[in-house]
Design a protein that fits this description.
Elements: H1 15-59, H2 76-82, H3 87-94, E1 110-115, E2 118-126, E3 129-132, H4 135-138, E4 151-154, E5 160-167, E6 174-180, H5 182-217, H6 219-232, H7 257-312, H8 320-350, E7 358-361, H9 362-376, E8 381-385, E9 392-395, H10 397-413, E10 420-426, E11 432-439, H11 473-484, E12 487-493, E13 496-504, H12 508-511
Parallel strand pairs: 8-10
Antiparallel strand pairs: 1-2, 1-6, 2-3, 4-5, 5-6, 7-9, 10-11, 11-13, 12-13
């Protein structure tokens, strides 16, 4: 899970998430552009209509500026009857802004008279009554010129007005007519609110639709990915590999992008399968060759050793140089015989030939192996760490003894005299027995450590013929342990090298058979 307060970077998003987010953002941008254009167009249209009405009303103002021409006969008393007090109406008529009370004026209409750069009279229409405006609110009207051009002015507490100025009938003063923009602004706010709601709904629906469509569209890609994952879970590094997994035919249509990926993966799997088959056939030929060559070499090597031993029965009959040469021939024949036997064993293990399965007392086997190693390597210190109870496993007794002998011989061969070698058994892991061979020698070189179980992997110190190392001992250990169902690992640093062999513990039924069931 992502830690709280830490956002997932965009590059880590899935393709489906990126597509859905991109579509939602695109819908949001389109809604914003359309909404902005709609609001601007509506505002321009409303302002144009308002300016037309305002200019028409302002053109009648000079002819209705005084009280005598402010309204047709009989109309003024009508306003006075409807107003509780006619003082403001009379003042408006007397100050030359009586056109405010003319029939047809909309509530909120503003009228003002500017003389000498000062607002001498100003009033607004509330219902059918004139209300005198304060000088603080109308101060901004002093800058309106009599050019007949509508402009927007902030009239203090009265709000924002669209005003126009025309010359008075006497030509000296400026008559100002204004209408409030509150209605236009309210309409725009309402339109913006509606557009926001519509945009949110559109984004929500677009996101849901995109999620469904993208999910369905990416199903072929998921099937291709599942095929790749299935192949990646297979063991392709060894043995015969039947790479029969292929991309479904419906996902290999090259007319689509996903189909192109599926077809490319299908072609890749076909070629990889052919390469693996060729590799396996080559490995089989090499194994067969090694097995045949090792088998054929056993007989002449046995003959060479036999003749060498026959000659060495009477060393006095030979000159010293000849006796030495015959001894070297016998020594090298023994060494080559061991190498051939190791190669033949590896070839059999690689071919999958089953080992013998029987109950093996690993405790007794380890005692014997350490006893043999101590007899050969008297210049080393040998120690044993064994559990109180015997440990039994199911396996091949001869091969497991070879595992122990090779590990102990490896410790003896590649460490200087005086090194302490400790062999132990432990059953701390449930269902497993751990066989360990530890030494306090100089350790394995770091560049060699990852390859110690490879065939013919040898360090510089082990290449001498006197050491007797063929580079196959640990490879045989790994092959036998794997055939037994266990694992072998190594860790090394100066002063401590540890080989750990983990083998499955023998089942209780196999370890302690019921006497009543014996024939």
């Amino acid at each position: 899970m992502t830690p709280v307060g830490r956002l997932v970077p965009v590059r880590a998003w899935s393709l489906r998430t990126k597509l859905v987010v991109a579509l939602v953002v695109l819908v949001a941008v389109v809604c914003a552009v359309v909404g902005t254009a709609t609001v601007v167009a509506l505002r321009q249209l409303q302002l144009a209509q308002l300016d037309t009405q305002l200019v028409t009303s302002a053109e009648r103002a000079p002819f209705a500026g005084d009280g005598s021409r402010s309204a047709p006969p009989g109309s003024q008393p009508q306003f006075q009857d409807r107003c509780p007090s006619s003082t403001a109406d009379e003042e408006a008529a007397a100050s030359g802004i009586g056109f405010l009370l003319a029939p047809g004026q909309q509530p909120g209409t503003l009228a003002a008279r500017v003389s000498g750069g000062q607002v001498v009279a100003a009033a607004s229409l509330e219902g059918f009554c004139a209300v005198t405006a304060s000088s603080a609110d109308t101060a901004a009207l002093a800058g309106v010129v009599a050019d007949g051009t509508p402009r927007t002015v902030d009239v203090g507490s009265l709000g924002t007005y669209r005003v126009v100025g025309v010359p008075a009938d006497d030509g000296g003063d400026v008559l100002i007519t204004g209408v409030p923009l509150s209605g236009l602004q309210a309409t725009q706010r309402r339109l913006v609110e509606v557009e926001l709601v519509v945009a949110l709904l559109a984004m929500l629906l677009a996101g849901l639709a995109a999620a469904v469509v993208v999910r369905r569209s990416l199903r072929p890609l998921r099937r291709v990915a599942a095929t790749a994952a299935q192949v990646s879970a297979m063991e392709l590094d060894r043995g015969e590999v039947d790479l029969a997994v292929r991309v479904p035919e419906r996902d290999t249509d090259t007319r689509t992008e996903v189909g192109q990926v599926g077809a490319a993966l299908d072609t890749l799997l076909t070629r990889v399968g052919s390469a693996l088959s060729a590799r396996h056939e080559s490995e089989l030929r090499v194994r067969q060759f090694v097995a045949d060559a090792s088998h054929e070499l056993r007989t002449p090597l046995a003959s060479i050793r036999g003749y060498a031993e026959l000659v060495n029965r009477d060393p006095a009959a030979l000159p010293p140089s000849a006796a030495h040469a015959v001894g070297r021939v016998e020594s090298e024949a023994k060494r080559m015989t061991g190498l051939v036997e190791d190669l033949l064993l590896l070839a059999r293990l690689d071919a999958g030939r089953p080992l013998e399965t029987e109950l093996v007392d690993l405790t007794r086997l380890l005692l014997d192996a350490v006893s043999d190693a101590s007899a050969v390597g008297r210049d080393h210190v040998w120690r044993l760490e064994l559990p109180d109870e015997p440990v039994e496993v199911v396996g091949d007794s001869a091969r497991l003894h070879q595992v122990l002998a090779n590990l102990l011989a490896n410790a003896r061969t590649h460490t200087p005299p005086g090194t302490t070698v400790t062999a132990g058994l432990a059953t701390t892991t449930p269902g497993q027995v751990v066989l360990s061979v530890l030494d306090d020698g100089p350790g394995i070189a770091p560049d060699l450590l990852p390859h110690v179980f490879d065939r013919f992997a040898r360090g510089d110190g082990s290449r001498s013929r006197a050491a007797g190392s063929s580079g196959l001992g640990l490879a045989i250990v790994s092959a036998i342990v794997a055939s037994t169902g266990g694992t072998v690992d190594v860790t090394s640093r100066p002063g401590q090298t540890a080989f750990l062999v983990r083998l499955p513990v023998a089942p209780l039924e196999a370890a302690d058979p019921d006497p009543a069931e014996e024939p």
